């Protein structure tokens, strides 16, 4: 077989001595093929250097076996955490023989409509969901199924999955209150994230404020850019706060450094709780009491929900994963 043209399914079939439909069934997994025949087809694929694309894999199923992940890379978002979600979606999708088309441009509703209207993907998963997300009306109109990692204000007719960020904020407050702290502060995402009314940031802030009000303690919420200067200014503006809740992974180390610069010891003078991935909390000095962000579980659940929708199975409209507080050495009873 010469390599001066693209190898096709027909070429593989002729090399393996089987019908082209048999090659398609091996690729799609839509029909049981004997182990011997499957091995022969796979050997021919390797020998000829055949690279199955979405169209080839879908011959028997009329599906692309590709899902789109819309992840607009916008100012104020912490890329390492976003990539944890993306990796979780990719891993879960590959486990069910699907590829992922990653869309990082901020195309809004037009981009969603463009991708959904093509034959490139079977369904969509959307991240960085705003409280009043302009993509939501388009999602309700689409023939292709979708799942949101996030929770807009109006979730009717949608499928959403996320950490319960309001409950996460409340859990941090409740822990600090149990330790005797009455002056609390939330250092949140950069201001631009709140300006977009990004759902997870707003829900965390609302959860902190509501829980503090219910407990009869004071809580101040401040945005915080992801720089040391911003962290130092924020800490200096909160001289009476003895309990800090940090919901900005990129500023965690800066906050701890700023507290040390001001001579405020953790946890002797101020207790710190973070809503962040475990690795961020564990590498801090001291290690931080935290509510983990379960990127792996959320991403996997999003793919699971989308696969169920593609199969025509009913799914819950909203899935919010309950937070869990992990105690480490950054919190203590107030003296």
Write a structural description.
The protein is an alpha/beta fold and 335 residues long. It has helices at residues 9-16, 20-28, 35-48, 54-57, 79-95, 108-116, 136-141, 165-178, 191-195, 199-215, 228-236, 252-261, 278-283, 295-310; strands at residues 66-70, 99-103, 123-126, 146-149, 160-163, 183-187, 218-222, 243-246, 271-275, 289-291, 318-321. The strands form two sheets. It has a six-stranded parallel β-sheet, with helices on both faces. α1 (9-16) crosses α2 (20-28) and α8 runs parallel beside α10 (199-215).
Number of strands: 11
What's the name of the CATH homologous superfamily of the largest domain? Response regulator
Mean model confidence by pLDDT = 90
Helix content: 40-55%
User: How would you characterize the largest beta sheet?
Assistant: 6 strands, parallel
Q: Determine the strand fraction and express it as a percent band.
A: 5-15%
CATH architecture of the largest domain: 3-Layer(aba) Sandwich
Give the tags.
14 helices, 434 Repressor (Amino-terminal Domain), five-stranded parallel beta sheet, about 325 residues, Rossmann fold, 11 strands, alpha/beta, six-stranded parallel beta sheet, elongated
Compact summary:
With 335 residues, this protein is of the alpha/beta class.
List the helices and strands and how they pair.
Layout: H1 9-16, H2 20-28, H3 35-48, H4 54-57, E1 66-70, H5 79-95, E2 99-103, H6 108-116, E3 123-126, H7 136-141, E4 146-149, E5 160-163, H8 165-178, E6 183-187, H9 191-195, H10 199-215, E7 218-222, H11 228-236, E8 243-246, H12 252-261, E9 271-275, H13 278-283, E10 289-291, H14 295-310, E11 318-321
Parallel strand pairs: 1-2, 1-3, 3-4, 4-5, 5-11, 6-7, 6-8, 8-9, 9-10
């Amino acid at each position: 077989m010469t390599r001066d043209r693209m190898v096709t399914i027909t070429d593989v079939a002729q090399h393996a001595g089987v019908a082209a439909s048999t090659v398609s069934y091996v690729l799609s997994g839509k029909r049981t093929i004997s182990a011997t025949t499957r091995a022969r087809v796979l050997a021919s694929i390797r020998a000829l250097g055949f690279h199955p694309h979405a169209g080839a894999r879908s011959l028997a199923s009329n599906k692309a076996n590709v899902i789109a992940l819309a992840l607009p890379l916008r100012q104020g978002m912490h890329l390492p955490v976003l990539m944890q979600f993306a990796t979780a979606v990719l891993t879960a999708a590959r486990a069910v023989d699907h590829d992922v088309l990653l869309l990082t441009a901020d195309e809004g509703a037009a981009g969603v409509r463009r991708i959904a209207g093509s034959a490139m993907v079977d369904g969509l998963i959307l991240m960085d969901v705003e409280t009043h997300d302009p993509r939501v009306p388009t999602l309700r109109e689409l023939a292709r199924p979708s799942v949101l990692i996030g929770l807009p204000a109006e979730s009717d007719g949608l499928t959403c999955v996320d950490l319960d960020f309001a409950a996460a904020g409340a859990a941090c407050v409740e822990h600090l209150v149990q330790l005797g702290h009455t002056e609390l502060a939330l250092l949140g995402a950069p201001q631009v994230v709140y300006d977009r009314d990004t759902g997870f940031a707003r829900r965390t802030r609302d959860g902190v404020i509501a829980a503090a009000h219910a407990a009869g303690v004071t809580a101040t919420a401040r945005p915080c850019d992801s720089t040391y200067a911003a962290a130092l200014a924020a800490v200096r503006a909160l001289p009476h706060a003895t309990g800090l809740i940090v919901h900005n992974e990129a500023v965690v180390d800066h906050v701890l450094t700023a507290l040390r610069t001001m001579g405020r010891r953790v946890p002797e003078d101020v207790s710190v709780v973070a809503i962040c991935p475990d690795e961020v909390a564990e590498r801090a000095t001291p290690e931080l009491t935290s509510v983990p962000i379960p990127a792996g579980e959320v991403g996997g659940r999003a793919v699971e929900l989308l696969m169920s929708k593609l199969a025509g199975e009913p799914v819950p409209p909203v899935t919010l994963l309950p937070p869990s507080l992990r105690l480490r050495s950054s919190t203590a009873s107030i003296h």
